[in-house]
Write a structure and sequence with these properties.
Elements: E1 3-8, E2 14-20, E3 24-29, H1 40-46, E4 50-55, H2 71-84, E5 89-94, H3 96-106, E6 111-117, H4 131-143, H5 147-157, H6 162-168, H7 174-180, H8 184-191, H9 198-201, E7 208-213, H10 218-230, E8 234-239, H11 248-260
Parallel strand pairs: 3-4, 3-5, 5-6, 6-7, 7-8
Antiparallel strand pairs: 1-2, 2-4
Length: 261
């Protein structure tokens, strides 16, 4: 059974987390729509030999939320989890969670090793030309309570078609998506301009592994390679056949090797 806990962030926000297994702590940072529950399959595969810590990012699940939002607050949330884990840990992040994990490492938190899967950055400025309009529309949709449309806009970025989004409405996965939809604006803020933040990444001193999927779009894979090249101790690895929705049983052995080294 998972060990359920609460960590208090610097602004007083309570962050709910779960711990599974024993050993070297690994904090799992979910991406858009991610929660402690959705990260549980990966945690279960890491638990033999590692203490896998999954959590609800602020505004999701059992965690609190304190206005106004700022990316710095989410970095402080990671700091609170690191303290709860004993003062230092490895960190894995996926998608926008990958961007947050890298921001936390760049901020100087005691992260021993950081691994990320497909951080949503682009290497070519032309590919983020429309990003300001995207961000404005996302915030407008959320302000108007049009959560379904906001979900569709975000999922389109990773290749989900309108028809596939419509089909999701009739599944048990839809209510959880609606529940966390307001935090999509937080993910958007973490991603920033959408360009690889090479200057900040240059300040990451921990060993870093950047992964992408062999079946993912070219732009996403090019971004991952550019992120790896910007990290002083960065390395890159492609997981053959994987898409942005990486399979936990493919990912876990790679993480176990990197974090166990």
């Amino acid at each position: 059974m998972d060990n359920v806990g609460r960590a208090e962030s610097a602004d007083g926000t309570v962050i709910a987390y779960r711990r599974a297994g024993r050993g070297r702590p690994v904090i799992v940072v979910g991406g858009s729509f991610g929660t402690a529950e959705t990260s549980a399959p990966l945690a279960g595969l890491l638990a033999p030999g590692f203490q896998a810590v999954t959590y609800d990012r602020r505004g999701r699940g059992d965690s609190g939320d304190t206005a106004p939002y700022a990316v710095e607050r989410e970095i402080e949330d990671v700091a609170a989890l690191l303290a709860a884990a004993g003062g230092g840990a490895c960190v894995y992040g996926v998608s926008s969670g990958a961007a947050l994990a890298l921001e936390a490492a760049a901020a100087g938190l005691p992260i021993e090793r950081v691994a990320v899967y497909e951080p949503p950055y682009r290497a070519d400025p032309a590919e983020v030309r429309d990003r300001p309009a995207y961000s404005r529309r996302l915030r407008a949709l959320l302000a108007e309570g049009r959560r379904a449309e906001a979900i569709g806009q975000v999922l389109a970025v990773v290749g989900v078609t309108p028809a596939e989004v419509e089909a999701l409405r009739d599944t048990e996965a839809w209510p959880p998506l609606l529940a966390v939809a307001p935090t999509l604006a937080y993910d958007d803020a973490v991603i920033g301009t959408g360009l690889v933040p090479a200057g900040r990444l240059a300040g990451v001193t921990a060993p870093a592994l950047v992964m992408d999927g062999g079946a993912s779009p070219h732009a996403m894979r090019a971004g991952a390679r550019a992120v790896a090249a910007s990290l002083p101790r960065g390395s890159h690895r492609t997981l053959p056949g994987q898409t942005h929705a990486v399979e936990p049983d493919v990912l876990a052995p790679v993480l176990r090797e990197f974090f166990g080294a």
